[in-house]
Give the backbone structure.
Amino acid sequence: MLGNGDSVENAGVMPRSLSDLFKVIDKTKSSSNEFRLKLSYIEIYNETIRDLLSESDKNLILREDPNIGCQVVNLNEIFVTTATDVFKLLT
């Protein structure tokens, strides 16, 4: 997913997607448009959900809210402004 990181050509799906996302945001920015991006990073394995941005190893719970849909309870959501911010969190 991340690639080997030696060069842009060897970048994985995640770095390329993030780079493209922030390029589109930069092109679309104007005085009438505002973008706020929140990042969460979870692992779902053997029907357990873990927050990979948390120090805790606790398993999280999935709940359905009638107004907003499915939610992972107590999931960390961190605001990011650049692709570099995202890569720092992922590493």
User: Anything to note?
Assistant: The two ends are 13 Å apart (CA to CA). Residues 13-28 form the longest helix (16 residues). The first strand starts at residue 37 and ends at 39. The CA atoms of residues 41 and 52 lie 5 Å apart.
